[in-house]
């Protein structure tokens, strides 16, 4: 019985030692905490901000009096819910806009005072970004929202859409475009968060969808625009065809004119040479030269069968002269 009592006392001593050691270890470790490189901490005392820590390492606090909350320093992602928004301009089309954003804490004191915890941050950012998206989108026509330039889109063989560096023939010209609209949303969102220590780094329109009630009208509009572009391209093609044919006709007339001039030059040279030969022949045999000239004249004159000639004319003396 005595041995059992001694054993129980030994166990009690061991447990007491472990308890005392644990309390001492807890008392030593409780004031200390580790802050990572991508974290920032805020220390409060009785609910009031005492100090902030922005550098990584081992930090301290006063046990039971001070409390520490740790927040991320890196850029965080926010995903909004799709919103049904009417576009601006004359069309007033209902579309679904799905946006995403990136944000970060820039003033931990303001952030803690206004929000306190990260769980509330998403709700606060919703209240800042979603009204900005609705307000900005409602100012612009649909084409301004879905496009960033007037360059037409070319679908490559691998399915990627790539803008061409040519002038678009659509009637509506983009004045701002999607990127500028996104920047405007960022600007408005930051105005909404300027007093809570948050900066909206960027806002991206992730997806745009037509309301089901507008699909038919949108398709008809797309068909009409494509037909208009096709008609303009046909007109341009006809104009270019006319210009090309005109150039060809001009070149043809130029070549014909040059050929005729060259032919006339050659003929003149031939006539000149013939005249020289005739003159030389005339000097040798006058009668033969006259005879030859008469035969040449018969070739051209007697072709016209509608003319009437008298055989007594001196013109026909070589035809009826039996001596020849």
TrEMBL record:
The chain crosses the membrane at residues 6-28. InterPro entries: Band_7, Band_7/SPFH_dom_sf, HflC. One of its GO terms (biological process) is proteolysis. Residues 30-222 form the Band domain. One of its GO terms (molecular function) is peptidase activity. The keyword Transferase does not apply. It is found in: Membrane. GO terms for cellular component: membrane. Keywords: Hydrolase, Membrane, Protease, Transmembrane, Transmembrane helix. It is a single-pass membrane protein. HflC and HflK could regulate a protease. Belongs to the band 7/mec-2 family. HflC subfamily. PANTHER family: MODULATOR OF FTSH PROTEASE HFLC, PROHIBITIN FAMILY PROTEIN. This is Protein HflC. It comes from Borrelia coriaceae ATCC 43381. The lineage of its organism: Bacteria, Pseudomonadati, Spirochaetota, Spirochaetia, Spirochaetales.
